[in-house]
Amino acid sequence: MKNLIINFKVIIVLTLLMMSVGMISCKDYLDVIPKAQVSDATLWAETGNADLFLNGIYGSIRGPIDFFDHGDNYTDNSISQYLWADSRGRYVLGIETPGSTSNLQQWSQFNNIRACNVFISKVEASNLDEDWKKLRLAEARFLRAYFYSVLWTTYGGVPIITEVLDRNTQGDSIFRARATDEETFKFIDDECTAIADDLPLIPGTSRVGKGAALTLKGWCELFNASPLKNPDNDKTKWALAAATNKQVMDMNVYSLFPDHATMLFQANNNNNEIIFCKTYLGGTNIGNSRSGLQPIGVVGGIQLSWSGVNPTQELVDEYDMANGLPITDPSSGYDPQNPYVNREKRFYDDINYDGSIWLGYESVYWTGSGSLNELDLNFGGSNRPCTVYHPRKGIEPQFCQNGYNNLSGANWAIFRYAEVLLSYAEAQNEAVGPDASVYDAINKVRARVDLPSLPAGLSQNEMRIAIHRERRVELCFEDKRWPDLIRLKLAETLIPGSVHTFQITKVNGIKVYTLVPTGGSDRAFDPAKNYVLPIPQSAMDQNKKLVQNPGYQNN
Amino acid sequence: MKKNLSYFYGLKNLYNCFQKLLLTLKIALLILICSIQNLSATATYSLNSIDMLQQKTVSGKVTDSQTGENLAGVNVVIKGTALGVITGTDGKYSIAIPDKKAVLVFSFIGYISKEVPFTDRSVMDVVLESAELNLEEVVIVGYGTQKKTSLTSAVSSMQAEKLADDPITNLTTGLGGRIPGLIVRQSTGEPGRDANDIYIRGISSTGSTQPLLVVDGIPRGFQNLDPNTIESFTVLKDAAAVAPYGVAGANGVILITTKRGKTGMPTVTFNSYMGFQNCTVLPKLPTAYEFASLQNAASVNVGGNPLYSASDLRKFKDGSDPDGHPNHNVYNELFDKNTPLNSYSLALSGGADRVKYYASVGYQYQGGIWAPTYQKRFNYTMNIDADVTKTTKISFGINGTEQLNSAPTIPTERLFELVGYATPITPLTFSNGQGGTYVWGDVFQSGKSLTNISQLFTQLSIEQKLSFVPGLIAKGTIAFDPTFTRNKAFRTPAHLWSVDTTKTPYQYIDGIFEQTKPSLSESMDYSKQLTYQASLNYERNFGKSSLGGLFLFEAKSNDDSYFGATRRNYNLTIDELDMGSSDLADISNSGASSSARQLGLVYRVNYDYDQKYLFEATGRYDGSYYFAPKKRWGFFPAFSLGWRLSEEKFMKNIDWLNNLKIRGSYGEVGSLAGSAFQFLSLYNVYGPAAVLDGGAVQAATEGTESNPDITWERAKKTDMGLDATLWKGLLQIEADCFYELRSNMLANPTVIVPVEYGVSLSQVNAGKMDNRGIDFTIGTNYSVSKDLHISLSGNFTYAKNKLLQVFETPTTYDNPNRRITGRPLGTKFGFESIGYFQVKDFDSNGNLLPGIATQPWGKVYPGDVRYKDINKDGKIDDNDITVIGNANIPQIIYGITANVTYKSFSFDVLFQGVGKTSFFGPWGYWQPFNSGRGAWESNMDYWTPENPNASHCRITPSPTENNSQVSSYEIFNSRYLRLKSLSLSYTIPTVVSRKIGVQNAKIYISGQNLLTFTPIINYDPEIVQSEALDYPPQRVISIGINLTIF
C-alpha cells in the first residue's frame, strides 16, 4: 500500500515534469518573426508601402558638406578657425590622399545609387498602379542622376551602374570599371532628358519635378562647358547649358523669393525659388544644425556655439556698394577705413562684422578690445575667430545655440532659381556674349537685393567678371563655391597662398583697418591632380578595375 | 577649503554609514526574530542556553581512516575562534568547549579537514581522510556535478568566500588572476558599468567572444549578485566541459553556484565594509604657466607670435589674477576623492532533517567621482530545499536585485571628452564659484539620468528518485527571470559662465550652453526569460565499474519589449511627462519588441573502471531561432578520457606522489555570432526620414544582403591536461594545453564586393581561426607551525590566436607585411616610426636631402616624425605599412595569490599581471592640442634641436597630418603587474566577541588595485579605448567587519 502511494507521488512528479516539456511545441517553437523589419512581399505590395523606400532615398540625400566645417571652408570664401578641421588641416594644404577621409569625399553615394536601382527594378517588376509607377520611377531616376552628378563633379568618370548588383548571379561582373568623364556626363544628361516630361510641373512639397530635372541637366551642362571639362572652349557646350537653363526659366514656375534675408529660413521652406532641396525636421535626428554651429559663437559674453566658419576678406570685398558698383571701382565710394558702410543689402544679410548687431549685442572683433571674439591670428588655441567675420546668411536667430534640442527644420537648398538665372547668364555670355537676355537674368538677381542693373555695354569679359562675382556673392555659404572654383579652374590661383582678413585696431579711439593674412597657411593646390579628388583607398582595394585619378596613385 | 570639505564629507559619510548599519541591523533582527519564532523551539532554546555550558572539556584521538595510525600534530580549533590545540604524538587532544553550539575543526596537512559539531559528549574520536582519497569531493559541471577524481575535462573552480570581503562592486572584478584560463579586463570603473570583459582562454573568433554565464544551472548574468551569497565559481574550458551548452559554449562557460542552507542550527552572519575609492591613475597635467609656455612654443614653432605675453605668463604663474589668468587642474578640482563604497550583508541559514533554508539581504552603495554619479544596490535571496519524501526533493529559490544608477544626463564619454578641453588655463570655476567650462555645468547642472533595474531570478525544481531503476533520478526545473529596467533622464540647462576682464571689477556673465529649457526622456524595458529543463540522471556502481548518464531537455525563451517617451522644452522643472510642453513638435515616443528561442537535448555518459580508467561522452543537439529552418539544428559532441596513473600498482609505492591523472578531450561546440535573421531578406523601417508632401515621413531601406545558408560557427577543441598532488598536498598542479580550431566562422565578406555594390552583406560561415596555449595553476599549502600556515598559488595563461582564413583585399593580402591572414586577430598595423627628422636631414633651404624617403602629408620640418621606408622605394606610402603592435586583449595573464595565517591573523594577497599586449595611445591626448584639447605634463618633453631624442615630436598648435599617422609612434606596450587585491583580517578572541554579544567577530582591511607596475603613463593600463574617454578604474581601501551573530 505504501509503495503504491509513493509510486502515485512519483507519477504526479513525472507528470509535472512532462507537462513542462509538453508546454513547448518543438515544431514551431523556434519560429520567431522579427518585428523590427518588413519583408519583400509586404513592401512592394502597395504603393503606400513602396513609397517608404523612396522616402528613404529622399532622406539620404546629402545636405551641406558639413554643418561645422562648412563647404566654403574648402575654398577662398571662408576658413575654419580650427586648425584641425578637415578643410584647413588637410584639403587646402593640398594633401588629400586616397587614405584620408575629408568631408568632400562622395564615394558613398553609390549606396544611394543602389537604393535607386533597387526601387526602380522592384517597381518596374510590380503590378502597381501605372500612373504612380511612371511618376515614382522618374523621381528615382532623377535622384540617381543627381547622385551621379555629385560623383562626376568630384571624381570625373565613375562606374555607371543601373541595375541591382547581385554577387550570386553576376559573378565577377559586379566589378565595374570607370566610365569616361564624357560617358558619365552623357548618362546624367540623357537621364534628365528622358525623365523630365514624366515629372510634374508642380510636384508634391519637397519632391522633385520637371524643373529639378532640367536644372540638374543645366548645371551639369554648365560644368561640362566650363574650362576644366572644355579646355578648347567649345561654344556649343555653353550654348547647350544656356538652352537648358532657359527651359527652366521658361517654365514660369519658379521665381525669386522677395526677401533675400529670410529666403532660407525654416518658415520659408518650399518657397517658389526652391527647385530641389534636402529636407530637415527641427528637434529630431534629422534636424539642421547650421544655425547652431556656424554663426558667431560668443554673444553678449555667453558661449552659444563654436563658430566653425570665418568668412574671408576676399569674399567680403566681392560685395558691391549699395550703388551697385564694385569696391574696386574708384567711383564706388568705398572707404577702406570705413569699409562696412553703404554696402549692398546682401552684405548685411550674409556677414556678421565688427560693429554689427547680432541677437541684440554688438559684435566686437577689434584687436585689444578684450572681446571673446577678438581676432586671433595665432594659430588657434583660444577658440577665437581667425578673421573678423562670421556668416549670418540663412542663420536663424532662434536656433543660434548649439544643441540637439535646438535643431532647426530649415531645408538645405540644393538648387534654387537664382542659380538657374546666373547659370543661364554665364552660359549665354560665353556662348554668344552679353546679350539682353544675359543682362535680364543677372539684373533679376540684383534687383531682388535693390542693386541697380549692370551698366549697358559691358564687354564679354567684363560681363564674365560681373557674373562670377554675382554668383560668388549670391550663392556663398551654399556649397557652390567649391565646384565653381574647380570647374572654372580658378582653384589653382585662389586656394594657394593666403586668405586674408582685416585686422582692426584702435588708434586714438579711431578704428584702423589693416589687411593681414590669416594664420596657419601652407595652402597649396596642385593643378596636375587636385581638380579631382582621389578615389578612396578602400574602393580601390575592393575593385581592381578602378583606376585612380592621376597623381594619387599609391604605387 | 576643498580639503576641509572632503574631510567633512568623509565624516558625514562615516556617520551615514553608521546609521545605515544600525538600521540594517535592526531590520535584520526583526527578520530574524520572525524567522526564528516560526522555525523551531530549539533555536530559541539555544539563545538562552549559552552560559550554562561553560567550561565543558572534550578529549579524544585522531587517526588515519585508511591505516588507523595515530595522527600527531593535527590542529584542533573551535570554529570561528582562535581557541585551539594540537594533537600529541599519540594523536590525542583535549580542549575546553565554550558553548554547546561549538564546532570543532580538525585539520592536518595532506588530509581533508573535518568539522565536528560538539554534541555534549566528553570524548570525541575523529578519523581523518587522506586528501588523496578525497573521492567524494565534487565539482560543479554543466547540468550536474561530478567527482573531482573522475573528472576528465578542463574545469577550474574557485570558492567565492574570498570575494565577500573584497571591496568590489561587480563580481567579475573578483575573478581576474584567480582562475587559470580566464582573461579579465576592466576598462571602466563607472558605477553600474564596471563589468569586466571576460575571455576564456583568449579570443577564438572574430565574432562573439564572451563566455556563457550560468547561475544555478540557468543561463543568466551574474554581475550584480551579492558576493556574500555566492558559493563557488566554476570555469568550463574544454570541449568536454562545454559541449552540454552546445551552441552557447564555444567561448567557454562560467558557472556560479549560490549558497544554500546546510543542516544545522540557524546561523546569522553579518558582513559589512566601508571603503574609500580613488582613481587608480589620473593624467599628470602641466600648470597654467607651463601650459601657456607650451602653447607659446607651439605658435612660435610654426612662424606665429607667442600667444601670451611675459606679463600673462607671470600672472599664470603667480596666480594673482585667478579669473583672468586661471590655473586649474581639472582632475584635482572636478573629481571627488575618497568616494564611499559601502556594503552590508546579512544572511540566515540552517536546516533541519528535511528542510534547509538560506536567506540573505544585502545593500551596497557606491559613490562616483562626482556627486550625480552613484549606484545603490539591494540584493535579496531566499531558497529552500525540502525532502518532501524520501525520494522527492523540491527546491525553490528567488534571487533578486534592485539597483539604482544615477549619472549626469550627459553621456560619460562626452563628459570625459569635455574634461580634455578643460585645460589648465581655462576657468574651470570662477572665484564666484560658478563653472566657466562646459564640463562643470554638464556634470553638476545637467540633471540626472536615473536607471532603475529590478531583476529577479526565480527557480523551482523537483527531483524524483525512481526506485524501480536504482540510481535513476528524474528532475524538472522551471526558471522565470523577469527584468524591468526604467530610465528617467531629466536634462536641465547647464550654465556656462564667462568673465569680461575689460571691466573693473571683472564682470561675470551667466550663460546657458546647449539646451535652454529642460527635457525629459523616460523609457521602460521589460524582458523575461523562461527556461524549462527536464532530465533523467543515472548513476550506479557495478563492482569496479561505475556508470553515469544524463539526458536533458532544455527550452529557453527570451522576450523583450521597450517603450520610451520624450518631451522637450519644459517650462516647469517638474520631471513628469505630463508637465512638459504641449507642442506636438516637442513630444515623441518609441517602442519595439523582440524575441529569442533556443531548444536543446543534452546527453552525458561517463564510465570508469576501478577509478583508474575514465571515459566520458557528452554533447548536445541544439536548435536556435537565429537561422533558417533548415540550418537551425546542430549536433555538438565531445569525448574525453582520463587515466589516474597514481592508482596503478607500479605507482602506488611512490609515496610522494599522491595523485596523478592525465586526461584528454576532443569535441565540437558551436557559437552564435552576429545578429539573428540574417537568412531573411528584410527592409529596415525607421523614421522620421524626410519631410515630404508637407509632413515628416517614415522610410524603409534595404537591410544587409541576406545569406540563407548562414548557420553556427563550429569550434573543434582539443585539450590535454594533468592533475597532480605531491607530498600530501604540499604541491598541487593542474595544467592544460589546448588547441582550438574555429571554422565556419561568421565573417563579414564586405571586402569581396566593390564599395560600389552599395549594400552591406550578411555574414557568411567562411572564416577560420585557431587559438592555442597553455594554462596552469600550481599551489602549495604548508604549516610552518601550529600557528603559522602559508598557502601560495600561482596561475598562468597563455593564449595565442591566429586568423587562418578571413576576407582580405589583395592590397593587404599580397603584401607580407600587411597580411592579416596568419596573424593574431587585432594585430596592429601602421607605419614604423624611426624617430624624428633632424636638422642635418635638411639642406639650407629647408628641403629634405636627397636619399631620404619623402612623406606625402605636407612639408616636413626637423622634429617631425619620420617613418621607415620598408620597401626602400624612396617614398613613404601605404606599401610601407607593417605590423606595429599586439592586440588589445593580452596573450598572457597571470596571477599569484598568497595566504598567510598566523594565530588570529590572516593575510591574503593577489598579484595579477598581463603581457603581450599593446594599445594605441589615447590619441587626443598623446598629441598635445588635438582638436582643442590640452596637453599632458609629459608633452613638455618635445623635440628641439637641443633635445633631438625627446619623447614627443616637434610641438605644433595642432597635430600635423604627418605626425598623426597611425604608427608605432603612438603604440604603447600595455603590460602590467598590479597588486590587485590585499586583505588583512583579525579574528577577535571569543572572550571579547562574546562580550559584545556575538559568536564570532572578524575585522579586516582590504584593498583593490593598490599598486601598478606598467610602462603606460597617465592612464590605467586596463583602459583600452584609444581616446581614453572612460571613467578610470578605482583603487579601493576598505575596512570591514564580519560577525556571526547567532
Summarize the structure.
The complex is a heterodimer of chains A (555) and B (1046). By secondary structure, chain A is mostly helical. Chain A contains 20 helices and 13 strands.
Walk me through the topology.
The complex is a heterodimer of chains A (555) and B (1046).
Chain A: H1 2-22, H2 26-29, E1 37-39, H3 40-43, H4 47-59, E2 78-79, H5 86-89, H6 109-125, H7 130-155, H8 167-170, H9 181-196, H10 210-225, H11 235-250, E3 274-278, H12 290-293, E4 298-299, E5 302-303, E6 310-311, H13 313-316, H14 345-350, E7 351-352, E8 357-358, E9 361-362, E10 390-391, E11 412-416, H15 417-432, H16 436-448, H17 460-474, H18 481-487, H19 491-494, E12 500-507, E13 510-517, H20 537-542
Antiparallel strand pairs in A: 2-6, 3-11, 4-5, 7-10, 8-9, 12-13
Chain B: H1 2-39, H2 41-48, E1 56-64, E2 75-78, E3 84-86, E4 92-97, E5 103-107, E6 114-117, E7 126-128, E8 138-141, E9 144-147, E10 155-159, H3 161-164, E11 182-185, E12 197-200, E13 212-215, E14 218-219, E15 230-236, H4 239-242, E16 253-258, E17 264-279, H5 288-301, H6 310-318, H7 330-334, E18 339-351, E19 355-367, E20 374-387, E21 392-408, H8 412-421, H9 438-444, E22 447-466, E23 472-491, E24 494-495, E25 498-500, E26 507-509, E27 512-513, E28 519-542, E29 545-567, E30 587-609, E31 613-624, E32 633-644, H10 649-652, E33 657-671, E34 682-692, E35 695-702, E36 713-726, E37 731-747, E38 764-783, E39 788-805, H11 810-813, E40 828-830, E41 833-836, E42 865-867, E43 882-885, E44 892-902, E45 905-915, E46 918-920, H12 923-926, E47 971-973, E48 976-987, H13 990-995, E49 1000-1013, E50 1034-1044
Helix pairs in contact in B: 5-6, 8-9
